[in-house]
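Structure in, sequence out. Go:
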């Protein structure tokens, strides 16, 4: 939707740049998820460091960091693709210094917004898992690091999904990228 329908009123808003307490809560959740995902990875593959070949290790580190930057861009593009799919309105993208974001001027219903929110963790998580299964074991932790970032970096998306699923069925969500406003007729 391009416009808020008549009778809808704001029931909740969030801005992680202004609400430092919520930002700290989400970042703490991200850290807990990161530790859990890394511990899970240790179950499958111990971490080994080859101090004899520092050039190869340095190259791997640079490659993994470059892939992680590409992952962050892909994460926001996936949000944007689904925003465009559900609204036919071109999304906008940006970076606040702390967060990369995709935003839109559209209003999304509950079902569509949950899909928008969870699409990157699900789709990119599946792709990264497949890549992780196919690469040599010497690359396991490099690729798995990106997966850990995928899961822990989606802490905000998981938080929002959990919040939205508890709200009335008629809600509409507008996500500018840096702030989110939720509307309902039942305000």
């Amino acid at each position: 939707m391009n416009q808020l329908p008549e009778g809808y009123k704001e029931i909740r808003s969030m801005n992680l740049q202004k609400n430092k307490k919520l930002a700290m809560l989400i970042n703490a959740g991200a850290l807990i998820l990161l530790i859990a995902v890394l511990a899970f990875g240790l179950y499958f593959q111990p971490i080994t460091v080859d101090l004899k070949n520092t050039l190869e290790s340095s190259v791997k580190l640079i490659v993994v960091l470059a892939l992680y930057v590409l992952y962050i861009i892909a994460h926001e593009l996936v949000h944007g693709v689904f925003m465009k799919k559900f609204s036919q309105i071109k999304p906008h993208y940006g970076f606040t210094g702390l967060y990369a974001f995709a935003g839109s001027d559209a209003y999304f219903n509950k079902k569509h917004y949950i899909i928008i929110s969870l699409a990157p963790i699900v789709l990119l998580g599946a792709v990264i898992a497949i890549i992780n299964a196919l690469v040599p074991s010497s690359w396991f932790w490099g690729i798995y690091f990106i997966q850990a970032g995928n899961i822990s970096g989606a802490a905000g998306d998981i938080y929002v999904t959990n919040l939205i699923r508890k709200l009335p069925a008629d809600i509409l969500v507008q996500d500018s990228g840096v702030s989110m406003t939720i509307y309902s007729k039942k305000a």
